[in-house]
Write a structure and sequence with these properties.
heterodimer; A: alpha/beta; Rossmann fold; 18 helices; 23 strands; globular; B: 359 residues; mainly alpha; two-stranded antiparallel ribbon; 15 helices; 70% helix; 3% strand
């Protein structure tokens, strides 16, 4: 248990007065964790973690899924309390009981998923989220000041639902900056940004660091960490496994620290594209969600033996397109979507699967898998045509064999076929779902964000499996926000922006810059 | 300080313990209630829970009343597992009684062995028909089946009332609102001598076993469970939402209809303005106390049946109001819902000192 400090952690003023003069505080670590331990009933999330962050330092926390990054950040931000260990903030031992405590100390956090009210304006959202004392008249003016100062243009009067995802992140960052933080925690901030927006964010972060603000940067994107961070702490299975200067490391060496072994490299052979397997023509579909994106005149062809990628910033119609292709939403005109030559627009998801379609959705729990059910039951969910059912009754043995076969073939770490889907880590459940879909030998495979939030080792495995599907003659469509991934595995690329899809371009005729420009929606 | 803390995963032990905890808490409330009414609690408990089942006839009555409860509850549970909220089993029971009773009155003079099977089929069809109306309204007009099935209860009971006051009234019945007594061929054979227990009980147990087989071992049952647990996953797998609603409603209606015909062809033997003391509603409690699980439902139906008998016995022996039965049922459901919190949360004692240190 952390020993309660004798001084009240929230009283910033008092700490300044008892603290040292500025010249000395530059050598004093901004934040120092020692021996932080947090155990959950099933897993030790943090096991004696030491971490030191200096003023003005951009410090990366790197690790696979489930390595304990999120738990550690939650402890620093006061969302959960550590079982053991001490937190020393600017030389004084503190006890952070809640996010409010953390904010009073000068710790801010920008979350991966933005908790913003769609129908309220920027200034209203910020007023709701910051302490009462800081809200009030003048807030709009201060938002303008801060956003201008740090190159984060933002109109305080605009309603949130009119903002792009990048702009929403700006709202979160500005909200955080308004509280004059001296340490900002950023949780996977670039996963929703275009490459150009990432560059702008990095410029802002570098400027903040130059002014003395410390930044804890959580990410699994090794290139970004190498480009941005001054120092990296690597976590594996709840322990610190290394510290390094990422500017002096290579991506493979960082990955090795993170997963403890070398990354497998996908083999990418030349595609031998065959006949069109999935043909979408002039698909226009109004969104069911008032703040969703309607699809407008989308046409697309995926041929057997090729992988087509769809790039785009999230929220530009990817979800709507996936639901329309998978059959979760049907179309009025059967000819809009053709699967292996059969008009399928008016078929539901099960009927489209019967034609040879398989789909890996973005959400694993609750859509790709039923959280409470066992892996065996979850195998039955879509693979029941694989001989798992006879005369309407479940063949329990065959169902378990299919689950066990999938677990073995894809190296899923799980407590067997009876383990509940929700007991698996995100990456392992994703491997199970990908495996379940692929083992049905689909002729058309659609995968949405196949490696989102999956650790680098599992991601490499999933990419390789997608390439193997392609080489076996399947038509593969991949939607991803990670351009590196798309450039690694795709044969052709299209960009979705504001519900419109660009033409598919062969990979060697395009570049990351061109795709990035298309993603921002500025060119047709 | 006590604090509720979310469990990392739902506790199975608490899932089974919760009904027992609820039953115990109900008894405590009963104790307080009896004391407040000036009755000796031990005498009252004896009258309520022991006396009714201290004779062979009493045991027969216990099983007799448990039969429709388990039958209806197991049918409702199939729908509830799929998020199909059929609240109108009482109406489907009444329709089953009307349809089955109609067949009995039509073949009043027949001694054929086919009369009884025909009545049972008619009862099932009647219940299914009444459940089909909310199912159609839900799938066609997206009307909430909770409201429509409940409202149809009143339509069904008034229809029965209309018939026994009018067209189907026994002309030799001294103007009482009741039908003719059914012929012997239209009555369910007695199972246990010197009691009213009839073969509806083994039929109900067979239906419970079939329901288990359907929900656990058939693809359609599996898909209904998926629809209840994760609607987005059901949509993803192409499980038809309409079929789920239809199956959920029809299974519930069929079981309630069968229970209805079982009542009129069993202990009642004719059609009366009221053929059920609220079995259709009590079965909702039975389904949840039994955790929507067949074995749990059988046990819960026995408990609920005992509450019915105990209530009657308390009226006779202790001159207590008949409302005591409903009160016990409600208390039981209330505590069950409260105790269910412990499936997902656990109590933790938190020291005051940490917060105080900051003060």
């Amino acid at each position: 248990m952390p020993v309660p400090s004798e001084s009240y952690p929230g009283s910033t003023n008092r700490m300044n007065s008892t603290g040292s003069p500025d010249t000395v505080s530059n050598c004093l670590p901004r934040l120092r964790l020692s021996g932080i331990t947090k155990a959950y009933p099933s897993v030790v999330a943090n096991d004696g973690i030491d971490l030191t962050v200096l003023p003005g330092e951009i410090h990366a926390v790197l690790g696979e899924n489930g390595a304990g990054k999120s738990t550690l950040m939650k402890i620093i931000y006061g969302v959960v309390q550590a079982d053991a260990g001490t937190i020393i903030w600017e030389g004084i031992e503190v006890d952070i009981e809640s996010p409010a405590d953390a904010r009073r100390l000068g710790i801010g956090m920008v979350f991966q998923n933005f908790a913003l009210f769609e129908t309220l304006t920027v200034v209203e959202n910020i007023a709701l989220a910051i302490e009462a004392g800081r809200a009030g008249p003048g807030l709009s003016a201060r938002i303008r000041d801060v956003s201008a100062k740090y190159g984060l243009p933002l109109d305080p009067r605009r309603p949130i639902h009119t903002l792009s995802v990048g702009e929403r992140q700006r709202v979160e960052i500005v909200r955080c900056l308004l509280q004059d933080p001296r340490l900002i925690i950023m949780d996977e901030p670039t996963s929703v940004l275009t490459p150009q927006a990432v560059d702008k964010l990095f410029a802002t972060l570098r400027r903040l660091a130059a002014e003395g603000c410390s930044i804890l940067y959580i990410s699994h994107k090794l290139d970004e960490i190498r480009a941005l961070c001054h120092k990296a702490t690597v976590l594996r299975a709840g322990r610190v496994t290394g510290e390094c200067d990422p500017r002096k490391e290579s991506s493979p060496s960082l990955a090795r620290m993170m997963i403890g072994s070398d990354l497998p490299h996908p083999r990418h052979r030349e595609a031998h594209a065959g006949k069109p397997s999935l043909v979408v023509s002039h698909l226009t579909l109004a969104s069911e969600d008032p703040f969703g994106t309607s699809l407008s005149d989308i046409s697309l062809t995926v041929r057997a033996g090729e992988i087509v990628g769809i790039a785009g910033v999230s929220g530009n119609g990817q979800n709507e397109l996936m639901a329309a292709l998978s059959g979760e939403r049907m179309q009025a005109d059967a000819a809009t979507v053709k699967i292996l030559g059969t008009p399928a627009g008016r078929l539901d998801a099960a009927q489209r699967r019967a034609l040879g379609l398989a789909f890996v959705p973005e959400e694993r729990l609750g859509r790709g898998a039923v959280p409470e059910m066992s892996l065996a039951d979850n195998a039955l969910l879509t693979a029941y045509r694989e001989g798992l059912v006879a005369h309407g009754f479940i063949r329990v043995g065959a169902m378990r064999d299919y689950a066990v076969g999938t677990i073995d073939a894809f190296g899923v770490k799980a407590g067997g076929a009876d383990a509940a889907a929700q007991s698996l880590s995100g990456g392992n459940l994703q491997k199970f779902i990908v495996g379940r879909e692929m083992r049905q030998r689909p002729r058309v495979l659609i995968a949405s964000q196949p490696t989102w939030g999956v650790d680098v080792g599992a991601a490499a495995q999933i990419r390789q499996a997608l390439l193997d599907m392609r080489d076996a003659g399947a038509a593969v469509l991949v939607v991803s926000e990670e351009l590196d991934e798309l450039f690694e595995i795709c044969d052709g690329l299209a960009v979705i922006a504001q519900g419109r899809l660009s033409e598919v371009k062969p990979l060697r005729e395009t570049s990351i810059e061109e795709i990035g420009t298309l993603m921002s929606g500025s060119a047709a | 300080m006590l604090k509720l803390e979310a469990r990392p995963e739902p506790s199975r032990v608490a899932g089974w313990l919760s009904p027992l905890l609820a039953a115990a808490a109900t008894l405590v409330v009963g104790y307080i209630l009896f004391t407040a009414l000036g009755k000796d609690p031990s005498l009252a408990f004896h009258a309520f829970f022991v006396k009714p089942v201290s004779t062979r006839y009493g045991i027969g009555e216990l099983l007799l009343k448990a039969t429709p409860l388990m039958l209806i509850a197991v049918g409702l549970a199939a729908g509830y597992r799929a998020n199909v909220w059929n609240i109108g089993a009482e109406g489907q029971l009444t329709m089953g009684a009307i349809a089955g009773g109609g067949v009995a009155l039509l073949f009043q003079d027949s001694t054929s062995a086919l009369v009884l099977p025909a009545m049972l089929v008619a009862g099932v069809v009647g219940g299914m028909f009444w459940a089909a109306i909310p199912a159609w309204l839900r799938t066609r007009c997206n009307a909430s089946e909770i409201l429509t099935s409940l409202m149809l209860v009143y339509v069904a009971t008034l229809t029965l009332s209309l018939l026994v006051h009018g067209a189907w009234r026994d002309p030799e019945g001294f103007n009482f609102p009741q039908s003719k007594m059914f012929s012997d061929a239209a009555l369910l054979p007695i199972l246990l001598a010197e009691t009213r227990l009839n073969i509806a009980l083994p039929m109900a147990l067979a239906v419970v076993a079939l329901a288990w087989l359907f929900m656990r071992r058939s693809l359609a049952g599996f898909q209904m469970r998926v629809a209840g647990l994760a609607p987005a996953a059901a949509n993803y797998a192409g499980i038809s939402g309409h079929r789920t609603v239809w199956l959920g409603m029809l299974i519930g209606g069929a079981c309630a209809g069968l229970a209805g015909v079982g009542e009129v062809a069993g202990p009642i033997g004719q059609l009366l303005p009221t053929v059920s003391p609220g079995y259709g509603f009590a079965a909702i409690i039975v389904a949840f106390v039994g955790r929507l699980h067949p074995l749990g439902i059988v046990s819960a139906s026995l408990l609920m049946s005992l509450l019915y008998l105990g209530g009657e016995s308390a009226q006779i022996n202790l001159a207590m109001p008949s409302a005591v039965t409903g009160l016990f049922q409600g208390t039981l459901l209330f505590f069950l819902l409260a105790a269910d919190v412990f499936i997902h949360y656990r109590l933790r004692f938190v020291r005051w000192s940490r917060r105080a240190a900051h003060a």
